[in-house]
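#dry-run=false #mode=assembly
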Amino acid sequence: MDKEKIKINPEFYDIMPVEYQELVENATYGKEDRGWKDVGSSKELIEEHSLCAGCPESIAFRHILASLPNPEETVMVGSTGCTSLVFPHIALHNIHSLFGNQNAVASGLKRALAYRFPDKIKDVVVLAGDGATVDIGLDMTLQSWFRQEKFATICFDNELYANTGGQESGLMQKGFVGKMAPAGKQFEKVDMPGLAKTSGCHYVAMLTSSKPNRVEKVIRNAVLIAREIGPTYVQIYTPCILEIGKQMMEGLQEMRDSEGPGQRFEYQEFITDEAKAYMEAKHPKKKRKKKRVEEKKVD
Amino acid sequence: MYAVAEVLDESCVAHKGCRLCIMYCPEANTIMFDPEKKVAVVNEYSCKGCELCVVVCNAAKHQAIKMASR
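#status=ok
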């Protein structure tokens, strides 16, 4: 997809929805240095969605869509869950298949795209919840990493099955009592980043979506490394404020609390030597003018 | 009654480069930067009233956003 392809025929311009007109005029397609700084001054690739008020998952969604390096040539593969409520509202190609088989679908898709468009760069990004990535789809997730399929896997970790009322998930922390898991979790949270490292991922990161510049850096690395080198995995903490009993404005503080030193979502990043050499050679860090960032004051 | 966020233009420090509310709003295209007035503006039709922008604005001691009923 290209911005040319979504252009409106001038004869029909006035009857198109305002949101679509804005997308054609003011979206950040085809911009090499797009990032979260474009948010607020240009049209985002996500429209009004049906997630709850104050849902941290939608903050993460905004940051991810703002930092994808090449959105017009990207196909996202989703799975069942709260994320599948947002996919119909994003201005990117996306696929929704059965629960848990997102990495299998993405494997086939990436191969088909490489065969059909050998001269174009096509990115495939899997975005699914923890139920789809770690519980029901763990088989497909791990097998795609063993096969070294070249796409990025992003897991929205909210530590339970939020969409269906709070059942226990593999990523739930030990001892947590969910609304539909009254006995409490009996065993430890699955160490998914560790599994990703041993399964052959070339870039693994675990973070929360409380810092947009960090999300931007991680997503950019994950997508670019997956383009040439091999599978990458990103795990983002997006707490479900309803299920952990927080108010709608407390999601951000919850993310900040759980990424402190020694907490379970402390920022961690792993990159193989091969991927590091590739990034330094092909995509060196851009030197940006340092602007005054107000964010520091909050921390 | 429905609660939406409202930006107080005189307290907003978006002209100094602050983008806190724009960054942390969970809704897309809801808090936008007005390039002429150099303040943040809220698109009230898509605001769900979660008060996250109020929390981040107050945490930075700007106190430039308050909730209003419509």
